[in-house]
Amino acid sequence: MAYFEHEGCTLHYEEYGHGEPLILIHGLGSSCQDWELQIPVLSRYYRLVVMDVRGHGRSDKPRERYSIAGFTADLVALIEHLQLPAAHVVGLSMGGMIAFQLAVDQPQMLKSLCIVNSAPEVKVRSADDYWQWAKRWSLARLLSLNTIGKALGDRLFPKPGQADLRRKMAERWAKNDKRAYLESFDAIVGWGVQERLSRITCPTLVISADHDYTPVAQKEIYVRLLPDARLVVIEDSRHATPLDQPETFNTTLLDFLKTVPTTTQDH
């Protein structure tokens, strides 16, 4: 367990293993705890770095407006703090947005990119988009984090054998700081870098659960906009793929990382 300071905010991170750097970035309302089924496996082969995004986990939760660009600036500061060479970067959901932002702003910092159940933009365009986000926004404000965590657990881990995952989800979600959670939620809506995807020249893997919130077809559209990307669909999975299909996820990621050239390419 370690901490560093960036712009007056103390941020928590953890390091495991040795080798080429591999950074994992969690999603909204989560923390680096949600990579617990990846850390023991991936750290056998890589220098693994996980961090709690500002407003999450054991990082500070400053009273301010949050943004994906701000979260990304924290990640850049961590990379510089650890003096990491070009890294493999994996982002889940909101973490995928942070990874996308890093890849378009600082392409030289990435050796490869893996996006899990995420998208390069969250734009509210249609009446249905507006209604869906307004509903989520309202519920996030009206309901307790405990209630949200239980509902999310039921939705993400609906099987009888997933009771332990449901319980963990509810417990962890309830520990969030409500104001920081809402600020992070607001940071997502309206964000986007889709028009800049051609800047991402490193090898890219997009992983989608077959039952993710957003359809696989939407991922197929943006994968075509990336210069060197492929899509893998993981079956019998929902939005939290690293938790509900850990073995398949870990194998898929490691197989992809093995194909990335070990010499750093100049972009």
From TrEMBL:
Q: Where is the AB hydrolase-1 domain?
A: 21-244
Give UniProt keywords alphabetically: Hydrolase
Q: Name one GO cellular component term.
A: membrane
Query: Hey, what's the signal peptide range on this chain?
Result: none
Q: Does the keyword Nucleotide-binding apply?
A: no
Alphabetized InterPro entries for the sequence: AB_hydrolase_1, AB_hydrolase_fold, AB_hydrolase_sf
Q: What is a single molecular function from GO for this protein?
A: hydrolase activity
Q: Does the keyword Ligase apply?
A: no
Protein name as it appears in the record: Alpha/beta fold hydrolase
Which species is listed as the source?
Pseudomonas brenneri
